[in-house]
């Protein structure tokens, strides 16, 4: 009997707590925000909040009182080392206690728009590579630079320029970014990667002592055709993904093939845009038969595989009916 009395008492207490939270959420309650790096240090206390307010609204309130902590720099968590809470979440969805409600904020540091980073990292290769192609005397000396280019080198320049011009076009007119900003340090890291590889590849492909592909014209044309098909496939997938997301939202839907035959790869992988990207650079490497280009392809494949696996897991977690036969980036394998 005592056991049942205890259970009833606990239920009543729980009911009271829920009721307190409910009325607090509707009538206004206080929320204390702590520093995620120093969990005992209180940053600010916000009052008169309602349960319907979103995390984004909380961030804006904090930014109004803490000018250095802009909205973009804030990452809100329920626990100091917990996962970041999405901006769309409402306070009442977090399961906070009615009394002493609190959250943690992590300062992400200075931020820069994703679009700006993309434009700068892609513009670099579009200007660096032509320096080696049009002004070889500045790089290799006037004597060596008099040797005419092999036609594979000319095609390489055209393919390289088309690829990065496409990247800039997509960044400006096609891509819709789910995250508005990234840490400013990423600009240095990303630009170093793309600009460094641009110089590395251009130096050897445009070198006066460049060795043509082993299988001659056949190898060049096979690589060229495969590159063109892969680039078109990549562009097609980016357009399809853009059409899945309404402007100004972070809405996600299961991507599926549309009328474009290049989109059929969605039947096999979650991120065919990465698949086509890797195919483009593999084709480029075949066309020019260059070790630096192959290294760039391998490095890109490793990074894109990581991204693809993360997106693949996110799709499976978000959508219960997500196609089980799909892999992340390589059909039937990865």
From TrEMBL:
It comes from the Eukaryota. This is very-long-chain enoyl-CoA reductase. Residues 48-100 form the Ubiquitin-like domain. It comes from Parelaphostrongylus tenuis. Keywords: Endoplasmic reticulum, Fatty acid biosynthesis, Fatty acid metabolism, Lipid biosynthesis, Lipid metabolism, Membrane, NADP, Oxidoreductase, Transmembrane, Transmembrane helix. It catalyses: a very-long-chain 2,3-saturated fatty acyl-CoA + NADP(+) = a very-long-chain (2E)-enoyl-CoA + NADPH + H(+). The chain crosses the membrane at residues 187-206, 218-241, 262-284, 290-308. Its main location: endoplasmic reticulum. It is a multi-pass membrane protein.
């Amino acid at each position: 009997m005592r056991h049942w009395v205890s259970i009833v008492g606990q239920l009543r207490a729980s009911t009271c707590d829920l009721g307190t939270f409910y009325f607090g959420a509707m009538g206004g309650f206080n929320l204390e925000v702590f520093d995620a790096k120093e969990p005992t240090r209180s940053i600010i206390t916000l009052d008169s909040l309602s349960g319907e307010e979103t995390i984004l609204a909380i961030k804006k309130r904090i930014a109004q009182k803490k000018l250095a902590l802009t909205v973009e720099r804030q990452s809100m968590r329920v626990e100091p080392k917990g996962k970041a809470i999405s901006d769309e979440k409402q306070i009442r969805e977090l399961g906070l206690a009615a009394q002493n409600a609190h959250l943690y904020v992590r300062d992400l540091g200075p931020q820069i728009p994703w679009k700006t980073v993309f434009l700068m990292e892609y513009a670099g290769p579009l200007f660096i590579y032509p320096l080696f192609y049009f002004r070889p005397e500045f790089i290799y000396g006037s004597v060596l630079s008099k040797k005419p280019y092999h036609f594979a080198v000319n095609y390489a320049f055209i393919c390289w320029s088309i690829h990065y011009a496409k990247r800039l076009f997509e960044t400006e007119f096609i891509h819709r970014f789910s995250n508005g900003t990234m840490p400013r340090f990423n600009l240095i890291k990303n630009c170093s990667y793309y600009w460094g590889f641009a110089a590395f590849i251009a130096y050897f492909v445009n070198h006066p002592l460049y060795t043509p592909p082993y299988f001659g014209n056949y190898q060049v044309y096979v690589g060229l055709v495969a590159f063109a098909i892969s680039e078109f496939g990549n562009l097609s997938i980016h357009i399809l993904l853009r059409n899945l997301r309404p402007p100004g939202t972070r809405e996600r839907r299961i991507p599926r093939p549309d009328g474009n035959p290049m989109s059929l790869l969605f039947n096999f992988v979650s991120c065919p845009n990465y698949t086509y990207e890797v195919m483009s650079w593999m084709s480029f490497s075949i066309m020019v038969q260059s070790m630096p280009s192959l290294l760039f392809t391998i490095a890109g494949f490793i990074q894109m595989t990581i991204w693809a696996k993360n997106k693949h897991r996110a799709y499976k977690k978000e959508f219960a009916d997500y196609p089980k036969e799909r892999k992340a980036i390589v059909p039937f394998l990865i």
